[in-house]
Each structure stands twice: as structure tokens, then as C-alpha cells.
Amino acid sequence: MKTKTDNKNRFVILMAGGRGERFWPLSRGKMPKQLLALLGKKSFLQEAVDRVLPLVPAKNIFVITNAAQLPEVRKQLPKIPKQNLVAEPMGRDTCAAVTLGAALVGARSTTGVMAVLPADHVIPEEKKFQQVLSDAFDMAAQGQAMVTIGIKPTEPATGYGYIHVGPELPTPSGARKTKTKSRSGCARPSWPSTRSRTTWRASHSNAWKVTAI
Fold first, then answer.
1. Residues 6 or more apart whose Cβ sits within 8 Å of residue 19
2. Which of 104, 111, 135, 145 could disulfide-link 172, Cβ–Cβ 3.0 to 4.6 Å?
3. ∠ at Cα 181 (117, 33), nearest 5°?
């Protein structure tokens, strides 16, 4: 039977401390890509928060940023509690941000299920993403599983990590056992022979119980 997670026991960690160097000169140290409104009236960070609010209460959303960007993050996210907007004293990349996020969630709930998501993605099909994320929460809640979200590839691209898709799991629909390869270890896949069994690994989009991490 599918395990449904209570929204109150769901947490989201948004990683929002990147420098956005590829968008220079629009992107600067205090106003990187995730804080810019490039495709509408809202920044990528604001859109990321809006996408998860139907699934997770605002009090359970954490944003990991840095000291230089914290004032603008606070300005853009007035509905998120200030104590949930956390500035790292020094950037130490993804692993440190995830560890910090897990510690924050663990201090709130020892049974919490957390999703770690980037703050600078463009996701046009919000409803579909929300269903996928909800399923990821529910799958992670079933045990010591680490769930990762894949993207259907449109072309060979060794710049991404790859997920090799295995047998479909009973629940939720679309969940499968997987093996991952880092982008540094990926050979260029044959195309289209591998595309039915391979997805791109959505950049740091994962879910798990806080006790699993």
C-alpha cells in the first residue's frame, strides 16, 4: 500500500547560494541568477518557492544561501520565516548545503521527509512537477530509500549525470530502481538506443527521510 506523507512532515531545502557566473554581467555576487527575474515578474527563487508551497507549508521550507545574498533573499521571500533563510559563512558546495539542511530538518522532526531542490530551474509544467515531487516524498517515506528525479533526455549530453533506469517499483507510478553515473564517468551514450533506459539526473533534485541521509 502506498505510504502518504503528511504535509506537515514534508520539508524542502532550496539551494540558493550559487554565484551564477555564467549569467555575468547580469548576474553579480549579491544578485546571482536565482535572484533575477529573467523570464517574468518573479525571480527563479520565488518561482521555486511557489512550486513547492502546494505540497509543503512555508514553515517547512528552508533556503540555504550565503551572507552576501541573504538580504535580497529575505526581501524576496517575506512569507518564509526568517529563521528558515540560512546563510552559510563560506560556500562549500552541495554536500555541505545538504548536510546543513538535514541537520535543520532533523532538529524539527526525527521522522521528516526532505526534498533537496535547486533554486534556479525553469519548470514550465508545474502541475506535473508537483505530482512527481509528491510521489518522491511518498516513496522516500516508505523506508531508507533515496529518491532522485530524472529528466527525459532529448539528446546525448555528457555534461549531466545519467540515471540508468531499472525495473518499475510497485508504487508510486513511474518510480524505478536506478543506477547513477556521474558526468565525469559518463561515456557518450549511443543514440537513440539508450534513451528508453536512461534519464538525465535533474540537478540535485532528491528526496529522502532525514534518518536515511
1. 27, 29, 32
2. 135
3. 35
Cα four-point dihedral sign 15, 37, 70, 134: negative
The domain that contains 110 carries what CATH number?
A: 3.90.550.10
Residue 196: inside a domain, yes or no? no
pLDDT tens column, 156-197: 777 777 777 777 766 555 555 444 444 444 444 444 445 567
Give CA–CA dist 30/109, Å, rounded. 32
Rounded to the nearest integer, the mean pLDDT of the chain is: 81
Cell numbers at residue 211, please? 534518518
Report how far residue 159's alpha carbon sits from residue 155's, in angstroms, rounded to the nearest whole number: 11
**Full residue range of the structural domain in which residue 74 is found:** 7-142+204-209
* The total number of structural domains that make up the chain: 1
Summarize the confidence of residues 1-6 as an average pLDDT: 59
149 lies in some domain: no
